[in-house]
Amino acid sequence: MARLPDNPDVLIMGHPLLFKSQRQVTIDEIHSEEFQHNLEVMKQSQFDSIGIGLAAPQIGWEVRVMSIGISKENHARYPKAPYIPFCYWINPQVIEVSKETNWTWEGCLSVPGVRAWIERPAAITLAGYDEHGQRKEESFEGFPARVMQHELDHLNGYLFPMRVDDKSLIIPHEAILHQEQWAENWPTESARNTERGQLSANR
Fold first, then answer.
1. Are 178 and 194 in contact (CB under 8 A)?
2. Could you give the CA distance from residue 197 to residue 176 in angstroms, rounded to a whole number?
3. Nearest of 95, 100, 96, 144 to residue 120 by alpha carbon
4. Which domains does the chain have, with CATH numbers?
5. What global pTM score does this model have?
6. Which residues are designated catalytic?
7. Whole-Å CA distances, 104 to 13, 35, 59, 121, 147
């Protein structure tokens, strides 16, 4: 297993590693010194980037690992989102997703300067392992479910622009900072009135 440098760059869309499905790891690997080092690097990289989630391939680590967490330190990118305790998910697997869906504005550290209005299932149940190699299963709904699905996409080689079905729903990040100035019902009524970290039942 490759040992990550202490301050890896976040890879940007176009890098081949971001389009690959990542491999699962073994319990022995989880307990190794190299793996634990990489987890710490991942956590620090997420905090340094003010990200609310990070997937291992975004920092050049080719494994099925992701980290999630929203606190007062990184709340600015999604000011209306609820706080989420920091946690790791190793070898995450989808157990169940809801038929109901919702929409929200997504962004990504690997796709800087862009936001998109994207639909995903409203709830999800995951199974996987924590940083100690202990199996866990948990259900998520609302914005935490959205974050989990976004990071899971990274582990399967997808970036959020690949989930957009209409190019009019992709905007520059600078635009969303001035959402109150948008034209009425642009790009859709719900998108116009939904702030970062909020969800909408309608397109």
1. no
2. 12
3. 100
4. 16-193 (3.90.45.10)
5. 0.96
6. 151
7. 21, 33, 25, 11, 11
